[in-house]
Amino acid sequence: MLDAHPAPLVQVEDLKMYFPIYTGVLRTQTGNVKAVDGVSFQITAGQTLGLVGESGCGKSTVGRAMLRLYEPTAGRVLIDGEDVAKMAPEALRRKRPSMQMVFQDPQASLNPRMTLAGIVSEPMDEHTDWSREKKTERVYELMDQVGLNRRFVNRYPHEFSGGQRQRIGIARALALNPRFIVCDEPIAALDVSIQAQVVNLLEDLQEKLGLTYLFISHDLSMVRHLAQKVAVMYLGRIAELSPSRDLYARPLHPYAEALLSAVNEPDPVLAARRNRIILTGDVPSPANPPKGCNFCTRCPKVMDICRSVKPELAEVEPGRLVACHLYTTQADAGSAGATEAKERNQQGVSQ
Amino acid sequence: MLTFALRRLLVAIPTLLLISLVIFLLVDLAPGSPASEIPLTVPPEVRAKILEALGVNEPIHVRYVLWLKQFFWIEPLNGIDAIFGTSYAEGEQRIISYQSRSPVFGIIGERLPQTLTVIGTAYLVGVLIALPIGIYSAYRQYSLFDQAGTIFAMIGFSVPTFFTGTLFIIIFAVWLGWFPTKYDTTLEVTDWQSFLQQLRQMAMPVMVLGLANAAAISRYMRSSMLENLGQDYVRTARAKGLSERTVVLKHVLRNSLIPVVTVIALGIPSIFGGAIITENLFGVNGIGAMLIQAIRGNDLPMVQTLAFIFAILIVLFNLIADILYGLLDPRIRYD
Fold this sequence. Notes:
heterodimer
């Protein structure tokens, strides 16, 4: 534990989440929507992994399947050494306090008939035997932490603004001192001025409480600001998983490159020189993904092999994992570096 | 909330006055005369005197205002007299039934207990059957139980009570002999034995009506549950690590009950209205049976009064439903 690489708190291995498709008169299963199709990553304790990708690529499904809000089809999700994906229901329920989620829509994700106090203290009712005073004390403490006025304690969700509601959502998630929080597009439903406040709040809390985040977002600049590592998803698979700085400076996967070229550049001089990569065509259906690389139908650098063989995520540069034949096949053909890279990758996984 | 209720009650006054006028005119202008009930053997001059005594010959507006006065002033006074033993209403003309020549409210008072026990129990049984069916159907949507619940609701909706009632009589009374075919109104519950007998004779009408009520309410419950089960806050509740029981019964059910409670409250006036067909089928001597008898006999005061009482109950329970909605849903405030 004391070596250079701190142990990962969260390890996801080959997570798959298929939603069955039933058709016909007899409702027989005729296929699967492969919302998440073999996703692996790890998150070091106290750090943030950003998960980006366009709408419908399976970002939120990854977060929900990790916390067993969906039943994953296959794969392992180790959180603090325990496999959440295969836990018995009662054990899972006891595990819940340590892994929490901040939801996208703060309006819909709070029960409209419960007051702030009720919403935030309910996890304590369920998982602790604290006295009423202690719970109230904790509710106040959480309200202070997320910056909500203590006077609001008996108000209902509809009486708050969007930003305040998201603060309630965060306070609720924090109630039982979780170690790992999935932030499922926590700022997408907020207006821009509030977004920064909420992101700063999340950052402060991470620093103070040593939280580990999976930050799901389609806001690339926010992810850059928050995350140490970023995974780019496309159609249920990770295209690239790199340290944030490297990814934003020089994306390797063609999809990551195209995605990042869409980030707004505030400097008009630079913006004028910027090369936007405009992808053509639509995302294929996750019920029927292409045979080879999921991105082969739209990739500007597509090769023959891309249409037949699915590229695996492999370490092509130190710390940078890319699932693209551009890097792996060249290495295979040429040097011995490829095997080395693969070995290192395997080491990384087995840590 | 109080100001809202008071304002709604004030608005209800002109509404009810208008309804009373419409009911009075509709019933009065309908073809048929109270004279048709007088046997033909009665000599014409006697017949004229009877009609004179009934007050039928007065102009219609006089009769309307008189009826209003009787309904809103004299009958309540009579009620007070009956309760406190006072004599405020002595010598005042009450609303008199053409058929029996006795006060309409007296007859209603005699009939109402029958209706309330049978129809009220049926409504209660219907609600008690419907809620669990609706909740579990939604929780296990498209399961075998849900399909069975759907079929149950379809039968309850589409098969009329005169059919189910007759079927029940044939099966449970004629073939199996479990229950009596007719409801005995004269039965008085004095001991355990007579209580059991009362239960037995109530069983069939209650089941027939309960089935029809449960069908509708279980559908409302199911759709309301389904709507809430898909909400984000349910996922939040699960993420909190609450037990499935708490998630469904505390979070989903409480939110789903809001519209269902309204529907149930709005259905209560129909209990007082009785169930004309079922009451006739089983011989329950209630309001429904009385109403149909009064319509046949051209008993105008009786029909007008009953119809107007129903109207009042409907307006009242609409108000109650609105107030309940405000109490149950914190997002709705009447200020």
